[in-house]
Amino acid sequence: MSQSDHIIQPSTRTTLDALQTILQTGGVERIDAAVAYITSGGALDFVKRAEVALGGAWATMPKRWITSFDYCRTEPVALNYLNSVPNLSIRIHNAEFCLQHDCAPKVPFHPKTFLIRTAQRDFALVGSGNMSRSGLSRGIEAGLVLSVARVVPGEPTAVASMSAMRTWFRGIWHDAEPLTTSLLDRYSEIFERNDNLRSPIPTEDDVASPDAGTGSLSSKELQKLRVCRNFWIEAGNITKNRGPHLPGNQLMMKRLSRVFFGFPPDDLPKNSHIGDVQLKFAGGHSGEFSMTYSDNKMEKLVLPVPGPGAPSAYDNEYLLFRRWKPGVFELSIGTKAQKNQWLKQSLTIQGAFKMSSGRQWGVF
Questions:
Q1: What's the whole-model pTM score?
Q2: What's the pLDDT at 212?
Q3: Percentage of residues in the chain with pLDDT exceeding 70?
């Protein structure tokens, strides 16, 4: 007996909703995915939803992912993150050719397909969205889910279609190259070249800025915030939010700086909670910290409380945030000489900025 489901995103049912429904049916034995490209937001959202749906079974279940280096759209940080997931294997379609041709493919890899096997049924989800945050939940996408019973299969055409999909996956899996550390390093080198960071190839997670006023960040600049690993800023004078005699820990940043930290550039009302950022400080304090769109039209990021395991104070320091994995950032404090080096690196990709107060910041 065959069954079907639909994806009409984002209005009623997202790709993530449909995937979660499948994963909650019970007895999931394997997940296979073939997606054209993967962003950090998409990888993080999928893993979080799968962990909720499957619990402890997520870690032990075999998982196979096929993606591509095509056009430098897949983010190396996302690949490194997925590579650390237990029992998840990644292969890259036509990897060697892409690396030898600056990530231009010989034949574009463009599927958006999830094949999930349970003890009772085989599922195929085929849609229009990639493994990006937009493709999985936010953008306008459509798709269908087909499932057939494994024990007492029904309609011959449905069974034949499912078999053909699994044969197709096995073929491209066999031909694709395993993602090794060496392969990822070579791709990262191309992805992080100045010419790519200066003018990144857009993905579905890149949307236009809602702010068109003087001094606002352009859509091209927001794309740089998404792809760069490093964000630095002159902290300036931190507000005494903890009391007049205690060092503060609320960093004010340019509006839409949130894009670097993995949040979309939505038009939000003042004093809105944007989300939580996981920060690690030099092997010391680690935890989740709130980011807010403040009433002064700036982003306010709460930092680790000054003291043991954190800086003694943030006032007039040079702060560097480095993306370690999706949603997780290492915070460090640099010298003036290091800040000048960060500025130089940002200038090479046109990623250096200045706030109305004169404080400098940038990405690289």
A1: 0.92
A2: 67
A3: 98
Residue pair 353/259 in contact by the 8 Å Cβ criterion: no
Full 3-state SS string of the chain = CEEEEEEEECCCECHHHHHHHHHCCCCEEEEEEEECCECHHHHHHHHHHHHHHHCCHHHHCCEEEEECCHHHCCCHHHHHHHHCCCCEEEEECCHHHHHHCCCCCCCCCCCEEEEEEECCEEEEEEECCCECHHHHHHCCEEEEEEEEECCCCCCHHHHHHHHHHHHHHHHHHHHCEECCHHHHHHHHHHHCCHHHHHCCCCCCCCCCCCCCCCCCCCHHHHHHHHHCCEEEEECCCCCCCCCCCCCCCEEEECCCHHHCCCCCCCCCCCCEEEEEEEEEECCCCEEEEEEEECCCCCEEEECCCCCCCCCCCCCCCEEEEEEEECCEEEEEEECHHHHHHHHHHHHHCCCEEECCCCCEEEEC
Q: Could you give the 3-state DSSP secondary structure of residue 312? A: coil
Give per-residue pLDDT as tens, 72-96: 999 999 999 999 999 999 999 999 9
CA proximity to 361, closest of 221, 223, 199, 266: 221
Q: In this structure, what are the phi and psi dihedrals at residue 48, rounded to the nearest 5 degrees?
A: -60, -45
Delimit the domains of the chain by residue range.
Answer: 2-197, 206-363
- In this structure, whether the domain defined by 206-363 belongs to CATH 3.30.200.20 is answered with no
The answer to whether 232 and 320 have CB atoms below 8 angstroms apart is yes
Of 208, 194, 213, the closest CA to residue 351 belongs to 194
Q: Do 173 and 91 meet the contact criterion of CB atoms below 8 Å apart?
A: yes
Output the 3-class SS for 276-298. Answer: EEEEEECCCCEEEEEEEECCCCC
Pick from 193, 226, 196: nearest CA to 209? 226
Residue 357 Ramachandran class (φ > 0 left, ψ -120 to 50 alpha, else beta): alpha
Q: What is the CATH number of domain 2-197?
A: 3.30.870.10
Question: Side chain identity at 280, as an amino acid letter?
Answer: K
